[in-house]
Write a structure and sequence with these properties.
- This protein has 646 residues and is of the alpha/beta class.
- The protein is built from 21 helices and 21 strands.
- It is globular and about 85 Å long.
- The two termini are 38 Å apart.
């Protein structure tokens, strides 16, 4: 693999001739495509310095890589990697010549241990790293040296740069990113669970399309709690059976059959049988005959994948994710007796309806403000989580563990500010809480999940159709533990210890450079981008969200190899176990709104120190196509207190 943005032009449609070579004119187009601007006169001068035979034939793919690598070296006035290389290992070797290589011993001692603060790394680990690095095909223009015969003993500066920008050196600790099955046996109440709100919607809350595909999209993005708003639909004229439908009630959103969603989830489980439990958050507005059909469809379609709790399993602690692997779990209503006022759960999201009333979108006569229908016994017995109204924490804590609450974002803020908010954390040690966006967010924008997470809420439901900053925070949170959708909450939220307080720290970040930054949405055409980085720390202190942001300067016409390497940005972290740093790359546009390029959100508890690469993700939280190699190089410093205590 040639360590350049080769993916941007390896299959380029710019190369039209049968010779599969690139002339100067085509090279200019490639440079624009990979966001590297050069004046035509400058490019011609550089091109004409090539050997005459190459100029006549045109550049091959490999020669094009070498040419671009040379441009990258020649145009960097102060290359951060050069500075790091000489600062760490010294400018001169023992024989007085400028340093061309570094030994495995020096790399371990001076770089990994002293600079990167890495532990549990040995010399043999470094030798394996060196052997792997020296197998990489790098367009070596800095010197004419061949690969060392003792490839596990030394690396040169180009291969050191390759390591700095590699996934192995990512700022997100690979130990935290890897899946750990050993931590999956706790009660469900001890996890943050990746959750979606109104999963079926493709756009706004009032008139957008409803789609089964959105469930697949959410599940493959890591979501493990999806929402279904079910209403009475038509009756099948041939079979005479009711057809439950899913849509955002009392709006102009389109309707889809309930059974189609269940079919889609069954397909997902067929391809992902080891998936951790998928929770259906059922907002059930159906009459009894339609509920009976819902129950039958769930049982018929899902079969053994449907978890049906027994009376004995409802006693004591909630089951673990491991015990529910490959299962669908229902959240709705499981009343012990006839439905009453206490069993009118908040998760019917009346807050949403009331907010719509205030905007005049629907009439009061259409709002289902109370439970007018009972619960079909067939559906109730399938349900594990029973939503109940909140009165006070003393009452809630004494309820069975399968009872749970659902709160809108405004209620979350209100409860978090109250003097007895510690009781909410205590409640969430054994019970579940689901939170959801305010109904005033008709544009399907998202609220910040930080306050809900800091109170131990497990299901912080977001609009997955809107790739805004809160959803990108969510992506960063659930990147941990292999992206399985379940993250064990920190001990401050699971241990009953009044003396256990959130750990604070100080974080320093310096953005050094970028590499292979694509155009907005990965587009092939358009002008070269002017990238800058926005750094935002999302944190919590005393029940309130705290956000601190900084922005670098923008680099003109260079997304291929931009250099910042200027200011250090300092953040005071109040709650290390919850706080998340978001690094977002934007394209500066002086004539209109700046365009989002890519992002990486990293929990502080998962962050590594030293000179680190930052793998960037597109708006769909993927790294593919034009985003394959998109990354930043940053310097991270964390107060030692944090490293010892988390």
């Amino acid at each position: 693999m040639l360590l350049l943005c080769s993916n941007d032009f390896s299959n380029s449609t710019l190369i039209q001739d049968k010779s599969n070579t690139i002339d100067c004119k085509e090279l200019q187009k490639i440079l624009t495509r990979i966001n590297f601007y050069m004046k035509k006169s400058q490019l011609k001068d550089a091109y004409h310095k090539l050997d005459e035979s190459i100029r006549k034939k045109g550049l091959s793919f490999e020669q094009c890589c070498t040419f671009l690598h040379k441009l990258k070296h020649d145009t960097w006035q102060t290359k951060p990697v050069n500075q790091i290389w000489f600062d760490l290992f010294g400018r001169f070797m023992n024989n007085g010549t400028e340093r061309q290589k570094v030994s495995a011993e020096s790399f371990l001692r001076k770089f990994l241990i002293k600079q990167q603060k890495e532990k549990d790394v040995e010399l043999e680990d470094v030798r394996q790293i060196f052997a792997h690095l020296n197998q990489l095909e790098i367009a070596n223009v800095a010197s004419s040296k061949a690969l060392y015969s003792d490839s596990h003993m030394y690396i040169d500066k180009d291969h050191f740069e390759a390591y700095l920008m590699s996934a192995e050196n990512d700022v997100f600790d690979p130990k935290k990113e890897r899946f750990d099955q050993n931590c999956m046996t706790h009660s469900l109440s001890e996890y943050w669970i990746n959750s979606s709100h109104n999963t079926y919607l493709t756009g706004d809350q009032l008139a957008s399309q409803s789609s089964v595909e959105m469930y697949m999209y959410a599940l493959y993005r890591g979501c493990r709690c999806v929402e279904l708003d079910i209403w009475d639909g038509d009756v099948d004229t041939d079979l005479g059976l009711p057809i439950p439908i899913v849509y955002h009630g009392h709006t102009m959103t389109t309707k889809i059959p309930f059974s189609d969603i269940i079919d889609a989830v069954k397909v997902f489980l067929s391809f992902n049988p080891e998936s951790y439990p998928i929770i259906f958050s059922l907002e059930n507005h159906c009459s009894i005959p339609f509920q009976e059909v819902m129950a039958e469809q769930l049982l018929t379609i899902l079969g053994d994948h449907l978890y049906t709790p027994s009376e004995s399993t409802l006693k004591g602690a909630l089951p673990s994710p491991e015990s529910l692997r490959g299962m669908v779990v229902l959240k709705g209503r499981r009343p012990a007796g006839p439905i009453n006022e206490e069993d009118n759960p908040e998760d019917r999201e009346i807050d949403d309806e009331e907010s719509l009333l205030h905007t005049g979108e629907i009439s009061a006569g259409n709002v289902d403000t109370a439970v007018s229908h009972g619960v079909a016994p067939e559906l109730a017995t399938m349900t594990l989580f029973h939503g109940t109204n909140f009165k006070n924490w003393d009452i809630s804590i004494e309820k069975p563990t399968y009872h749970m609450h659902s709160f809108s974002e405004s209620t979350v803020r209100s409860l978090s500010k109250q003097a007895n908010s510690r009781q909410w954390i205590e409640y969430n040690r054994t019970h579940l809480t689901r939170t959801f966006p305010s109904g005033k967010r008709v544009d399907s924008s998202n609220y910040s999940p930080m306050v809900a997470w800091s109170n131990g809420c497990q299901m912080v439901a977001l609009n997955f159709q809107t790739s805004d900053s809160p959803l990108r925070i969510n992506d960063g949170r659930f990147r941990e533990n292999g992206g399985c959708g379940y993250i064990l909450k920190p001990c401050t939220l699971t241990t009953k210890d009044d003396f256990l307080k959130p750990v604070s720290s100080r974080l320093s970040i310096k953005v050094l450079s970028g590499s292979c930054l694509p155009k907005p949405k990965g587009q092939r055409r358009g002008e070269c981008i002017d990238p800058y980085v926005k750094l935002s720390l999302y944190d919590e202190k005393e029940g309130k969200e705290v956000c601190t942001s900084y922005t670098t300067n923008y680099v003109v016409d260079n997304g291929f190899s931009p250099i910042w390497n200027q200011d250090k940005y300092t953040f005071d972290v109040c709650n290390v176990a919850v706080a998340i740093l978001q690094l977002a790359v934007w394209d500066k546009d002086i004539h209109s709104k700046d365009n989002f390029i890519a992002n990486s959100s990293v929990p502080i508890s998962c962050m590594r120190q030293g000179f680190r690469s930052v793998r960037l993700f597109d708006s769909n939280n993927t790294r593919s196509g034009a985003f394959d190699f998109a990354s930043l190089l940053i310097e991270v410093k964390l107060k030692e207190q944090m490293l010892e205590e988390i």
